[in-house]
Specification:
Layout: E1 17-20, H1 30-39, E2 45-50, H2 62-68, E3 76-81, H3 89-95, E4 99-102, H4 110-119, E5 123-128, E6 146-150, H5 165-178, E7 184-188, H6 193-202, E8 206-209, H7 211-214, H8 221-229
Parallel strand pairs: 1-8, 2-3, 3-4, 4-5, 5-6, 6-7, 7-8
Helix pairs in contact: 2-3
Bound molecules: D-xylitol-5-phosphate and zinc ion.
Amino acid sequence: MATENSSIAPSAPRPVRIAPSILSADFAKLGEEIRAIDEAGADFVHVDVMDAHFVPNLTIGPPVIKALRPHTKKPFDVHLMIAPVDPYLQAFADAGADIITVHPEAGPHVHRTLQEIRRLGVKAGVSLNPGTPAKMLDYLMDMVDLILVMTVNPGFGGQSFIESQLMKIEAIRKRIDKEGLDIALEVDGGINTETARRAVDAGADVLVAGTATFTGGPTRYAENIRALRGD
Ligand code: DX5
Ligand code: ZN
């Protein structure tokens, strides 16, 4: 397992961490792309795993993650959009995932799924779709290291940010702080420099960005990441 930071949720003041989604990378040279975003200052590598069943798109699985693992020491933030999810957790952990995030709708027992992710020695994340209320987190707050708020419906890169999710981010930030929990609050979908600022103002501290990171090719990655971070 490769981690540069032992905690994924530092205490305030909160640095903004950027997690480029490799869904927008050049799939013909993924190893190179990962080395380029690492050098450009990415904090996590966000890997979108889709099954053409839970979401209407099909992407990559554990063998690709395993092949990419030696190309960076940055944490692999693996976002599973697959159902069922439980039978594949071990394979993603073995492939080198540092964080595994699941959707509660992807299995009948999300609490058990999160227990299993931690048992595998991986940080556990839960993701809320735009239509899934924050209340879903009741009884899960002690089970997660990361909460991922989807600001698009999962399935594709390049969609528009759904404004209504800002209220959800605010509510979750209040809850994390009030309860004094060590949980990263990540936002995914339609992030650009403008929506990044709004998401951070609402309380997010990890920004997933596919299109906004990879636009313009490798010579632009450092500048793109800096702009998203608000530096
Ligand atoms: C959507 C994925 C996102 C997506 C983000 O299902 O979870 O990570 O690739 O892409 P952009 O940043 O282009 O909206
Ligand atoms: Zn994602």
